[in-house]
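Re-run with default settings, no changes from the original entry. Doing this only to confirm the output is reproducible before filing.
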Amino acid sequence: MQCDENPKFGTRLRHEVGTLVIAALMLAPATLVAAEPLAPGAGQRADDLARVQAKERYKKGVEAYGAGRYKDAIDLFLEANRLSPEPSLSYNIGVAYQDMGDVAAAMRWFRDYLRRIPQAQDRVEVEKKVDELQQHLRKTGVQQVTVLSTPEGATVVVDGRPVGVTPWTGEIPPGTHNVTLQLRGHADADKRFELLEHRAMDVEVVLAPLALPATSTVPVVPFQGTRVPHPAKSASVPATTAEGGTPPDRGGRAPGVITWGMFGVSAAAFAGALGFELARRSAESDARDYPTRVGALERYDTMVSRQSTARILAGVGAATLIAGGALLYFDLTREPPGKAPAAARARIGVGWNAPGCGANVIIRFF
């Protein structure tokens, strides 16, 4: 969000914060290298390499900031923070956004800095900066809210509209709002909050995991029936009923082509649903890890589209599976050709409900 009035709190990155970051990034590799003979491993070397790369990104970010290339500096600081998280980088990102004139983004990162270092020595100073930025947002008719969840990565729905994944920060009008968080394997959580016009706020939600279905064990009872006669001794003795006649031929027919077709369509639909669900998870992971907000929202839209497709295919698979099961039942219980039907025959039909992308199974007897 841009603001004509740009309250700048300095024209360069804070020296003490920069010193902290450089010290952390420069000393960490040396420490890891010294400790490597005691605990060698690929994981240790990967952490060491990540810290070295983070230090390089940070140095380039400082150079870009000094040259007035604030967007490049922000991207480099974000990359450094991704490689080796450092709370002080949040402050530097906020300063760069502030010099760009992006009040909302600057306030977001200053608040993130205070959230990551609750006992920061400069907390009072940074809070004053946040307060001034809050007043600038107030003049535009919106205020900032951050939605946090444990665990992270939940879909955020504000007033019925999906807006992103946690941790999510955005600007909305002051007043009463509803937020819903959705995460696979956890129960949906709803929370109502009141956003003041002069102060940003955090909304924190702990998601409860869904209880796993209880599994029941069925005891195995050994078979205690009579011994079956040997085939060689009983082959010539025809089976008889209690009245002395032979049992009626129950007949039955093999499943038809349409029945197998229903099962085939069901399997294909479920396979497609699984594929789109895996693609949705990938898009959700990309949205959660993407360093920039715009890119994260694009990947979130992709995730929502793949989720809808997966649900539609799952519905089609379920409907055709039910239809195939019904057809299989009638195929196996149908009287052989040439015999009068012992009971009313049935006809099954499948109809599609376009508005809801569902299926209706209709059985008629005649």
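The radius of gyration is 33 Å. Confidence is low (pLDDT under 50) at residues 1-12, 15-38, 233-237.
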